[in-house]
Automatic annotation (TrEMBL):
Biased composition (Basic and acidic residues): 79-91
GO (cellular component) term, any one: cytoplasm
Keywords, ordered alphabetically: Coiled coil
Region called Disordered, residue ranges: 1-24, 79-105
GO BP annotations, alphabetical order: cellular response to lipopolysaccharide; positive regulation of canonical NF-kappaB signal transduction; regulation of transcription by RNA polymerase II; toll-like receptor 2 signaling pathway; toll-like receptor 3 signaling pathway
Name under which the protein is recorded: TNIP2 protein
Presence of the UniProt keyword Coiled coil in the record: yes
Organism of origin: Nothoprocta pentlandii
Amino acid sequence: EVQQLNQQLEEKNGEIQQMINQPPYEKEREILRLQKSLAEREKAQATSEVLRRSLTDEAQQLQRRLASTAEMCQHLAKRLEEKQREKRDSGDPMPAERSNQLLNDETSLQALIAKLQDENRMLKHKVAHV
């Protein structure tokens, strides 16, 4: 292991000697190449950081939207249950107009719940993807 390390040290010393013995323009060229490489890495790292922040913000927005949608679904489900309970509990025959209104309300609530559930699933998928 010591021999291996000594060999690596000799190789590195050889590389250093080559760099020292190079003409000045070669050294400058190598410095410029390394500076360019460093600048490209810094640019890539900055871009990655911006993308990471953007995705984090988007994920947080989607989570808030998902929570809001889930809350709305729960609220609408409660309202629908209450209306159905009122409909069952009331033994009085309703006027046709009121009956139609309740049916329309129930249908629109069910449609809205279905729409919100679809949106909820879509948001969950987006959050999982992000």
